[in-house]
């Protein structure tokens, strides 16, 4: 959120469910205030698709170059899709 703030994105626009990610404390500290363009490319390319799928992230975001508005729109769609599936089947 500090990085987004440095990019002119207000806290009220970044502090939303579609921008939440569960990370270990060590990983959170490692990426800290960095741009996704800095830390996403460090993820093994062989693991990116599975990480994106299990984290409900747009695969395109794994390159780190997606703009925030597009990321939030796509992530929100993935979250809605997963919630609807869960409601219908009780399984994601």
Approximately how much helix is present in the residues? Answer: 55-70%
**Helix vs. strand class:** mainly alpha
Classify the oligomer.
single chain
How big a fraction of the residues is strand? under 5%
Q: Main β-sheet: number of strands, strand sense, barrel status?
A: none
Terminal CA distance reads 28 Å
Order of helices and strands: HHHHHH
Helical region count?
Answer: 6
In the predicted model, the low-confidence regions spanning at least 5 consecutive residues are none
What does this protein look like?
- The protein contains 6 helices and no strands.
- 58% of the residues lie in helices and 0% in strands.
- The protein is mainly alpha-helical.
- The protein is globular.
Can you summarize this structure?
This protein has 92 residues and is an all-alpha fold. Helices cover 58% and strands 0% of the residues. The protein is built from six helices and no strands.
Q: What's the arrangement of secondary structure elements?
A:
Elements: H1 2-6, H2 11-14, H3 25-31, H4 36-39, H5 45-55, H6 68-89
Notable traits:
globular, 92 residues, mainly alpha
